Amino acid sequence: MDAAKMLDGKVVLVTGSGGGIGRDIALMAGAHGARVVVNDVGATLDGRGQDRGPADSVAEEIRSAGGIAVANFDSVAESEGAERIVRSAIDAFGHLDGVVNNAGILRDVIFHKMSPEQWDQVLKVHLYGSFNVSRIAATCFKEQQSGALVHMTSTSGLIGNLAQANYSAAKLGIVGLSKSIALDMRRFGVRSNCVAPFAWSRMVSAIKIDSLEQQERVTRLQQMTPAKVAPLVVYLLSSRATSVTGQIFCVRNNEIFLFSQPRPVRSVQREQGWTPEQVADHAMPALSASFHQLDVSADVFSWDPV
């Protein structure tokens, strides 16, 4: 296969691709031969209004560069919107080969001040949105016995960050969703992987800076462009990645990481079982050497990006 056309003949849907990481993924997919559905509701950062401009603009960029693209403006947060998004790919191009679940919002607030609305808004777009679009696409993939899903997770969920309980819960939930899809759909030739991107984007610019840790995190992110994330995603959508599924990757400027997945690290056992006192006196002292610290993403990724 010509490396310059790694997605030649494929139809790819990218949610939230009117700007930021999604835009660069859509542009690179188009440059590598994919017919692209550019989805974006065009809402402001605080969720108000809708604007067809961002999706239309990216679709036009792809076409101006010699590619093929259509725009869609539905929301991933509701199943009806997800159905219309997938239908737009089928109507325009006859089939669907790949989905990038990238749409997202932030509603950062310290946990004890978080409202149910702030919780729901983030879960609906990130976690429900990834499920909604993937579920509709899965029917198409099953029928054609092939398909690739790439879901955007985050080190906020994989490691942790301050004032992001809603976002962290959604992003770690996406990891479980992706693994379940990979297990359930592999017999139909469907792959599902996660990517945790480090990149400065419009959504990330909404991070509240109320601590030294957050300031350090934002400073690092400002050095990283969304375009750095796109090559891995394009690869995962391609036929070159047919053996790659159920994995969690991370892109940080010029670095690509493979993340571990939760597995037992240490155990203790008593033949007669445990009393609470024995747990306190014996189990916890034995296990505590392997405890994880209350670190945040910036603690783990503490070196400057290459």
Automatic annotation (TrEMBL):
Entry-linked InterPro entries: KR_dom, NAD(P)-bd_dom_sf, Peroxisomal_Beta-Oxidation, Sc_DH/Rdtase_CS, SDR_fam
Record-linked SUPFAM superfamilies: NAD(P)-binding Rossmann-fold domains
Name of the featured protein: NAD(P)-dependent dehydrogenase (Short-subunit alcohol dehydrogenase family)
Family membership: Belongs to the short-chain dehydrogenases/reductases (SDR) family.
Domain Ketoreductase, first and last residues per copy: 10-203
PROSITE patterns the UniProt entry points to: ADH_SHORT (PS00061)
Superkingdom of source: Bacteria
